[in-house]
User: What shape does this take?
Amino acid sequence: MNITEINKQVCKMLRDEINPVIQNKLREYGLEGGLGNASYDDSTVTFKFEARLEGSPTKRDKDLQLNLERWAGYKAIQCGVEKEDILNKEYIIGANRYRLTGFNTKASKRPVYMQNIMDKREYSFTEDHIDTILPVAEERNQK
Assistant: This one.
C-alpha cells in the first residue's frame, strides 16, 4: 500500500498496525506501552510514545494519586480528621463499598475516582456527593 496523503484514517491505520509490533518488542524487555495520540499534517504524522516498567502505574494514574493526596489533605483540615482517615476509609454508597483511588483536577463535574471493592471497577463521583460521606471529627473520636 502506498500512502499519498496523511489524514485521520491513515493515522488510525498506522497506529493499529504498528502498536502490536511495538508492544511485543516492549514485552521482550519487560516493558509495556505503545503509541498514543497523534498530530499530523498532509505529509507528516507524529505519535506520542510511552514505555514503562511492566505493572507500573501510568503517568495519569500517578497524577490522579498525587492529586488525591493533596485533595485529601485539604478535606482532612475541613473535616478535622487525619488525611489517612479519608484515604484509608471504606465508603458505603448504596449497597456497594468503595475506596478512593484518584482525583482529577481537570474534571469539573465528577473529579473524585473511587473503586468498587467487590468488582474492582472504577467510578467517578461529584465532590458534593463525597462531602456527604467523608468522616468528621466526631466519627474519629468514636473509634
